[in-house]
Design a protein that fits this description.
Radius of gyration: 40 Å
Strand content: 5-15%
CATH topology of the largest domain: Outer membrane efflux proteins (OEP)
CATH superfamily of the largest domain: Outer membrane efflux proteins (OEP)
Shape: elongated
Number of domains: 2
CATH class of the largest domain: Mainly Alpha
Strand order of the largest sheet: 2-3-5-6
CATH architecture of the largest domain: Up-down Bundle
Structural class: alpha+beta
Largest sheet: 4 strands, antiparallel
Order of helices and strands: HEHHEHEHHEHHEEHHH
Distance between the termini: 34 Å
């Protein structure tokens, strides 16, 4: 596959390594305290995803320089030694160089010429310049479009990295909150069991109530273990994205709180698709495919090159008998007009392939625009649904807390059963968990909306 073909096939999500400043890695036992912005900055500085994206941009820059070099003069130098053991031009003088010898004049004639010399040194300096090449301008435009696509791809990858870090950060916060809620429910059940044991000791309770309290506590312990495991896994996933040692303790300082809900501002989905970096990068791919069609057409057009060579040649009698007197000059220049005549129908096949590739890129562009518009509509709907869920579940938490407090009060007065207390405690735990999930879903949906818009955080973008 040619260089230009590889340029055309590079996708819009290509990107590159600009040697970002390495953030200081914490020791394995040090506690790492990170806000959300600090986590984004760390992901942008030392995260493998962002660094790999920047590496693609560097590759694009080198390929642009390589394409531009074809328009500049090429200068090559060489130094060669040649040893001739036998040649049809070698003429040996007879031992008796008499005046009437037939070979004497011929030997004398060839004695000062380079033909058949045993030792030959050649130093050459050759300059080549393309005067007219129908493919040259197209190759430059392809390289520039590829570089633009790689930079747009970097923006797209940074937006994707931001979404992943935000979602992982919120996921770790949610898992920690669920673990905290479950731990509080276990603590409540333990306090209730202690109260039942005290009542049994005072003669106001029954052994059955104590057994029920013990069963209720034991039923909550597996949930606590499950919540602890989920929190550990969510934290490990966040550490992986921001490149923190997996064994280092991590403390998240940005709290998971309900956002200030505001009216949704809906944008035109087609305008969103136009501004999205991935769509713009695919547009560059379409331009590249169009230039490849032009290159295939240019294969039918002649090209003109200029070449100049300056050489110095020496024929010493001995291998190392070099000096500055006996060098001969060989200086020439040429213009070469290359006219394509017949290539076994290869040029026609290349042109057909380039046109098919152009149509494919146009289809991909249309599909990508539709996908971006759909992604935006889904993200807006998810955030709106999550906002409604926060309002409803916050009210549910307040009601569940009141139910639990009243049930415990009624139980202390002998008006409620132990089963009612357990149900009220479980209802409060579920209400808190559902509220935390609603808040987390809103933040993740908001991150998804920013991802659909292709927006990137300043903390992540400048974190190199």
């Amino acid at each position: 596959m040619t260089l230009t073909a590889r340029l055309a096939r590079c996708g819009a999500l290509a990107f590159l390594l600009a040697s970002p400043a390495r953030a200081q890695q914490p020791a394995a036992g040090d506690t790492v305290r990170l806000s959300l912005d600090a986590a984004l900055a760390r992901a942008g500085a030392v995260g493998e995803e962002a660094r790999l994206a920047r590496a693609q941009v560097d590759i694009a820059s080198t390929q642009v320089r390589a394409a531009r070099s074809a328009a500049l003069p090429a200068l090559d130098g060489s130094f060669n030694y040649q040893r001739t053991y036998a040649s049809p031009f070698q003429v040996k003088a007879p031992s008796d160089a008499s005046a009437d010898s037939a070979l004497a004049p011929i030997a004398k004639l060839f004695s000062n010429l380079p033909f058949g010399r045993v030792n030959q040194y050649t130093a050459n300096l050759t300059a080549t310049q393309a005067i007219f090449s129908p493919r040259l301008g197209s190759a430059l435009r392809i390289a520039n479009s590829y570089q633009s696509a790689s930079r747009l791809g970097l923006r797209e990858q940074l937006a994707e990295t931001e979404y992943q870090v935000r979602a992982a950060y919120v996921g770790a916060q949610l898992a920690a909150d669920l673990e905290s809620s479950t731990r509080e429910a276990v603590a409540q059940a333990a306090r209730f069991l202690e109260q039942e044991r005290l009542r049994l000791s005072a003669g106001t309770g029954s052994e059955l109530d104590v057994l029920r309290a013990e069963v209720s506590l034991e039923n909550l312990k597996p949930q606590l273990i499950e919540a602890q495991n989920a929190a550990a896994i969510a934290t490990l996933n966040l550490k992986r994205l921001i490149n923190v040692p997996l064994v280092a303790p991590l403390v998240l300082t940005t709290p998971l709180v309900a956002p200030a809900l505001r009216a949704e501002e809906r944008l035109d989905p087609s305008a969103v698709a136009t501004q999205r970096a991935a769509v713009q990068a695919e547009q560059e791919n379409v331009r590249i495919a169009n230039e490849l069609v032009k290159q295939a057409i240019a294969a039918y057009i002649p090209s003109l090159d200029f070449r100049m060579s300056l050489g110095r040649i020496m024929y010493p009698q001995q291998v190392y008998a070099l000096n500055g007197r006996d060098w001969l000059t060989d200086w020439n220049a040429s213009l070469t007009l290359k006219v394509p005549i017949f290539s076994g129908f290869k040029r026609g096949a290349d042109l057909s392939q380039a046109r098919i590739g152009l149509r494919q890129e146009e289809y991909r562009l249309a599909q990508l625009r539709e996908a971006v518009q759909l992604q935006y509509e889904q993200a807006v709907g998810e955030r709106s649904r999550a906002a409604s869920a926060i309002t409803a579940r916050q009210r549910t938490v307040e009601q569940a807390q009141k139910v639990y407090d009243l049930t415990v009060l009624r139980y202390d007065q002998g008006l409620a059963t132990h089963l009612e207390v357990s149900e009220a405690r479980l209802g409060l735990l579920m209400a808190r968990s559902n509220y935390s999930q609603a808040v987390a879903q809103y933040h993740i949906a908001d991150a998804g909306l920013q991802r659909a818009l292709g927006a990137g955080s300043a903390a992540l973008t400048t974190g190199r």
